[in-house]
């Protein structure tokens, strides 16, 4: 991620050629699946970008924005779920709908800084 709210995209065989300037705060976490790129930020949001092939190159389009009451510090995808750590809470979303399936609160004192699906 980037401190200026941007997400630079690059292919390891080429130079960076795309930067997504979509967050109002620093980007704190990224997670890529076969169908989407998720970016979490200190602006208290997770942005979902749909991945598609176009003209031989991969294209990303903003599909949705999920908002939280605290900084987003981590995102992780596993199966059909997306886990999001925001402050001291963890949200479990259905990736297909974006709906919260489960919310974990008061797991411990302080902010959660990482999650694994």
UniProtKB/TrEMBL annotation:
<protein>
    <recommendedName>
        <fullName>Peroxin-7</fullName>
    </recommendedName>
</protein>
<dbReference type="InterPro" id="IPR015943">
    <property type="entry name" value="WD40/YVTN_repeat-like_dom_sf"/>
</dbReference>
<dbReference type="InterPro" id="IPR011047">
    <property type="entry name" value="Quinoprotein_ADH-like_sf"/>
</dbReference>
């Amino acid at each position: 991620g980037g401190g200026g709210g941007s997400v630079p995209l690059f292919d390891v065989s080429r130079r960076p050629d795309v930067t997504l300037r979509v967050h109002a705060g620093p980007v704190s976490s990224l997670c890529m699946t076969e169908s989407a790129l998720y970016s979490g930020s200190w602006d208290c949001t997770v942005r979902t970008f749909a991945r598609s092939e176009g003209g031989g190159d991969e294209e990303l389009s903003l599909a949705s924005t999920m908002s939280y009451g605290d900084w987003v510090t981590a995102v992780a995808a596993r199966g059909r779920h997306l886990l999001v750590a925001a402050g001291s809470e963890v949200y479990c979303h259905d990736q297909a709908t974006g709906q919260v399936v489960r919310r974990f609160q008061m797991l411990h004192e302080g902010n959660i800084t990482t999650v694994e699906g």
